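The following record pairs a protein chain with its ligand, manganese (II) ion.
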Amino acid sequence: MALLTDLVAGLAAGSVEVIDLTAPLSEGTPVIRLPPSHGQPWPFERQVISRYDSAGEAYWNNIRLSEHTGTHFDAPVHWPSGRHLDDVSAVPPGRVVAPAAVLDCSAAAAADHDFLLRREDVEAWQAEHGPLPERGWLLYRTGWDGRSGDAEQFLNGGHTPGVAPDCARWLAQETSLIGLGVETVGTDAGQAMAFTEQPWPCHWYFQGANKYGLTQLQNLKRLPPQGAVVITGPLPIVGGSGSPARVLALVERSQIKQGGE
Ligand code: MN
């Protein structure tokens, strides 16, 4: 058990830091907007059950939200391509504690809000930083977390960055990645419904390969390109297509980026 003893010692000494990649969850949390024919996820709502109302009364709330509200986890069964694969309660916990690669395309996404990550971008990153981690997450930084406090800016009229269909297919089918994490409201680009080659390619290919999605992440700017370990805990909703999730990263302090762009 020396490994875990070392980890606990590192956490206590601050040489390993826990970075929260989760967006705060509130009534102001942006939710995706789809054409009416697709239905709409509920925004976060709460109703007070009691709030110290009488002597000895506790404070607690009922909450209402969708499986895909705020920072959340997409399970394979979310998409038609994964309909016979795992629902969120069947996701093996050992699969979602995993190393992470962080690709920073924030400059490209600032210049072009419809920027699509291409295979050559990932290959250029690999030439600089080494291979994608085995059975790891690809965390795709676009700078979109800087907009998350304002729903209009965050959703940007449906113009948000994503991944090109051929790149999504390659990542999902030909690498050992377990999933894709993004800062935007969904794993796919805002315009991905209209892609002719493959609409919503991240959902189609990743979920179809029994792989996962993570959305509305924050603080990716503090993570190194390689070396972080991501821990995420979707609720085991039986039959569920996904779940709001707390997403944490363990990072060695010497690797944490200060400031960030
Ligand atoms: Mn989702």
